[in-house]
Design goal:
By secondary structure, the chain is an all-beta fold. It contains no helices and eleven strands. It is about 0% helix and about 50% strand.
Length: about 160
């Protein structure tokens, strides 16, 4: 288990350097609805591929009414985060109907480790009730993290991302 997070929210437009002991929370609030996410966090030393910012309209994906999250683009079942300088810790808060995997790679594309949520979301037989998808925190710590892939076989949301 990782030690407690010391985190702070930072926007790509506000910060140019982050000490590597502090975890930085990416600020999705400065994105716009349906914006494709790629180089917006370049000054934080990372890029994101195959993601779009949105406010979930499906009530099963419960989150704050005014918060933006990331979802994979329609053509991909994953979101990739690449770091310009390697990091040592990652924390992703995710939600979805099925298992969500966090795979961590080094600069040579070797898998350093993989974390995942529970196998699948259980559905209760009461068809009239909307069941919320639970939020899970996936954390990884390893020397030399160069890339992270968050993936699932079903739609999922990346609610928060911390790195450092």
């Amino acid at each position: 288990m990782l030690p407690p997070l010391k985190s702070q929210i930072m926007s790509a437009r506000d910060v140019s350097f982050v000490a590597h002991q502090t975890l930085v929370q990416l600020d999705f609030a400065k994105l716009t609805q349906f914006e494709r996410v790629n180089e917006q966090y370049r000054n934080l030393g990372l890029s994101i591929e195959d993601a779009i910012a949105l406010q979930p309209s499906n009530p099963a994906f419960a989150c704050a009414a005014d918060s933006l999250v990331l979802m994979p683009t329609a053509s991909k079942p994953h979101i990739t985060v690449s770091f310009h300088q390697m990091v040592q810790r990652i924390r992703a808060v995710v939600s979805g109907a099925r298992q969500i995997r966090l795979t961590v790679f080094d600069r040579h594309s070797n898998v350093l480790l993989q974390q995942h949520t529970d196998q699948a979301h259980s559905h209760h037989p009461d068809a009239g009730a909307i069941e919320l998808f639970p939020q899970h925190s996936l954390e990884a710590a390893a020397a030399g993290i160069a890339r992270v892939v968050v993936a699932s076989d079903a739609p999922f949301l990346l609610n928060q991302l911390f790195c450092g």
